[in-house]
Amino acid sequence: MAQLTLAPQPIAVITILITVCATIPYPVMALDLSRLYGHINSKRNGDLCHPYEPFKCPGEPHCISIQYLCDGAPDCSDGYDEDSRLCTAAKRPPVEETGSFLKSLLASHGPNYLEKLFGNKARDALQPLGGVDKVAIALSESQTIEDFGAALHLLRGDLEHLRSVFMAVENGDLGMLKSLGIKDSELGDVKFFLEKLVNTGFLD
Ligand SMILES: [Ca+2]
């Protein structure tokens, strides 16, 4: 199986978010990345910012530069530039890559394969959880595993199982993944995928 690249691409992610955020009509009362992602291609003319200050505060006339995004200090009057989900997603692998990775595992091993990670509700290609895209978005924008469990209404037992998987990866225990039935040929990709989440605060 080809190695999937899941390295974070903060500049690319921020660029996408800027493009999206600059083109979404206000009001955006709460950041809904699942909805925003669907609007990437529906670019609207007008309301565009100068290239040096490409991020538009929703509903406000002024734009801010990239370095003021997620820098810990609010620059939009409503703090939109410091939205926790936006800033979490900016640190994570692009949601499209996460979705592609999950789909590749399902295509290779069948629709119930991801039960190994996410539990019984991950059967039928994650349909009981809302589908692959919803899970990929939740992985992208949930700051912690608790947030992820809440977003997808995971059962407590499934959430604790998932936590144990992540903790095993954090501790370098690949035996845990093997015991779940992850094949040797995919251990590297799965470990890499899980590590990206751990390294961006998923277990904090
Ligand atoms: Ca800021």
Largest beta sheet: strand ordering:
1-2
Sheet of most strands: 2 strands, antiparallel
The tally of beta strands, per DSSP, is: 2
Runs in which pLDDT lies below 50 for 5 or more consecutive residues are 1-10, 18-45
What is the H-and-E element order? HHEEHHHHHHHHH
Q: Count helical runs.
A: 11
Give the end-to-end Cα distance, rounded to a whole number of Å: 32 Å
Structural class: mainly alpha
Radius of gyration: 18 Å
Shape: elongated
Organism: Carabus violaceus (Violet ground beetle)
Keywords: Disulfide bond
InterPro entries: IDLSRF-like_peptide, LDL_receptor-like_sf, LDLR_class-A_CS, LDrepeatLR_classA_rpt
Protein name: IDL containing
Q: How would you describe this structure to a colleague?
A:
The chain has 11 helices and 2 strands. A hairpin with a 6-residue loop joins strand 1 and strand 2 (63-64). It folds into 2 domains: 10-91, no CATH class; 95-198, no CATH class. The chain has helices at residues 10-23, 33-37, 84-91, 95-109, 115-118, 123-126, 132-141, 145-152, 156-170, 174-179, 184-198, and strands at residues 55-56, 63-64. Strands 1-2 form a two-stranded antiparallel ribbon. It is mainly alpha-helical and 204 residues long. The relative contact order is 0.13. Bound molecules: calcium ion (CA). Calcium ion (CA) is lined by residues 68, 71, 73-75, 81-82.
